[in-house]
Design a protein that fits this description.
By secondary structure, the chain is mainly α. The chain is about 45% helix and about 5% strand. It is globular. About 5% of the residues are buried.
Length: about 110
């Protein structure tokens, strides 16, 4: 069960299915509210945030993969390489994140990605 809107949560406290749902769900903003990024200070006044640049996206992928200690380094490298290929082909970040989450959830080995 996903947390209610505005509720402060720690991702580690959530079950696996909820974390996966939160990471892959499309984000739709209300035009009357804004969201801000605590890392860069950017502000969005509703709507879905645009895709990141390739370098920004891959940095986010690296940060995500660093938290997946159970995934062997070769599998992490393969997931990252495939994410880069999808990004270069023009796949939207949201869809690319879904693919990443799928492969990480399965714990695929490098040759299986």
């Amino acid at each position: 069960m996903a947390p209610s809107e505005g509720e402060n949560i720690e991702l580690e406290d959530l079950d696996y299915e909820t974390r996966l749902e939160l990471w892959t769900e499309p984000k739709y903003g209300d035009h009357r509210r804004h969201r801000s990024c605590t890392n860069c200070g950017g502000v969005s006044w509703g709507g879905v945030l645009g895709d990141l640049t390739t370098d920004q996206f891959l940095a986010a992928v690296d940060e995500y993969l660093e938290t997946k200690e159970y995934l062997p380094p070769t599998a992490q490298d393969a997931v990252r390489a495939e994410a880069r290929k999808r990004k270069q082909r023009g796949l939207a970040d949201r869809d690319n994140r879904s693919e990443i989450a799928y492969h990480v959830a399965l714990g695929l080995a490098a040759e299986d990605v």
